[in-house]
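User: Here's a structure from my thesis project, written as structure tokens. My advisor, Dr. K., wants to see whether a designed sequence matches the one we expressed. Can you design one independently, without my sequence as a hint?
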């Protein structure tokens, strides 16, 4: 059984796109995300929906399921309570978890 002597070339093409989010100076918003344990840029749900082309309802579900993070609940201090999903519509959403979930790389810059 002779293997035919063909050479196989595999080419892997990786596409990588970075979404640059430009904010007016002083309008960029960041907060401490407890899940990421880091200071992260945050978006309100409308901005997140536009940036990640998602429906706000979808974001609310993801938030509820813990797939994306909200930093808003952290402001209420030391309670042992979880994030309340009802706050989804005025939540400050962790950009890092959004970028991870949607497989998008984002970078926030100030003008
Ligand atoms: Zn986070």
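Assistant: Designed independently from the structure alone:
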């Amino acid at each position: 059984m002779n293997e035919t002597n063909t050479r196989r070339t595999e080419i892997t093409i990786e596409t990588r796109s970075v979404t640059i989010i430009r904010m007016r100076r002083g309008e960029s918003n960041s907060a401490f995300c407890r899940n990421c344990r880091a200071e992260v840029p945050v978006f309100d749900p409308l901005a997140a929906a536009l940036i990640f082309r998602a429906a706000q309802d979808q974001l609310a579900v993801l938030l509820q399921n813990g797939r994306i993070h909200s930093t808003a609940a952290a402001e209420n201090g030391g309670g042992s309570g979880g994030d309340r999903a009802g706050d989804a519509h005025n939540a400050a959403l962790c950009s890092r978890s959004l970028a991870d979930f949607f497989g998008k790389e984002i970078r926030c810059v100030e003008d």
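When you compare it with your expressed construct, this may help: The first strand starts at residue 18 and ends at 23.
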